[in-house]
Design a protein that fits this description.
By secondary structure, the chain is α+β, with helices and mostly antiparallel strands. The protein has helices at residues 2-11, 13-19, 70-84; strands at residues 23-25, 36-49, 52-67, 89-91, 94-109, 117-129. It has three helices and six strands. The longest helix has 15 residues, at 70-84. The radius of gyration is 16 Å and the shape is elongated. The mean pLDDT is 93.
Length: 131
C-alpha cells in the first residue's frame, strides 16, 4: 500500500512539477537537492470483525516537505495537500476509501554552516482495503 501511495503522490502533477522524482523513504540523501519530500508510515490499524480480519486498514502516513525557504516548503505542502486530502479511489493496486489530512506542523531545521532548511510535516490518515 505504501508504494502505491508514494507512486500516486509522485504522479500528482502539482507535486511532480515541484520535486520531480525527489521523494525518499524516511531520510533525505546526503547533500540533497531541494525542494524534496520524505515519507514514512507511522501506524497501521487493521479492522477486525467477530469472524476475524475485516480486510480493511487505516494507516497514518507522514509526508515531510523540505525546502530552502519557508515559502517554498509551504507551497510544496499545499501541492501535496491538494493532491491527497479528500482523495478516494484507486492508488494503483490499492482501493482507497478515504484520505484526509490529520495534522500539519512547520519546522526550521538549523544546519551547521548554512542558514537552515524549512520543513512542513503533514500526517495523512488513509483508509483502504487490504489485498
Amino acid at each position: 500500500m505504501l508504494a502505491d501511495f508514494v507512486a500516486f503522490l509522485g504522479n500528482a502533477p502539482a507535486v511532480s512539477a515541484i520535486v520531480s522524482s525527489r521523494i525518499y523513504p524516511q531520510l533525505l540523501p546526503q547533500n540533497p537537492t531541494y525542494p524534496a519530500i520524505t515519507y514514512n508510515q507511522v501506524s497501521a490499524v487493521r479492522v477486525h470483525v467477530l469472524a476475524g480480519a475485516g480486510g480493511k486498514a487505516r494507516r497514518r502516513i507522514s509526508v515531510n516537505c523540505w525546502a530552502t525557504t519557508a515559502k517554498a516548503a509551504e507551497a510544496l505542502a499545499d501541492a501535496v495537500r491538494r493532491s491527497l486530502d479528500g482523495f478516494y479511489g484507486s492508488m494503483r493496486d490499492t482501493n482507497v476509501g478515504s484520505t484526509r489530512i490529520d495534522n500539519e506542523i512547520a519546522f526550521f531545521e538549523e544546519e551547521a554552516g548554512t542558514t537552515g532548511i524549512y520543513r512542513v510535516v503533514q500526517d495523512y490518515i488513509v483508509g483502504h482495503l487490504e489485498t
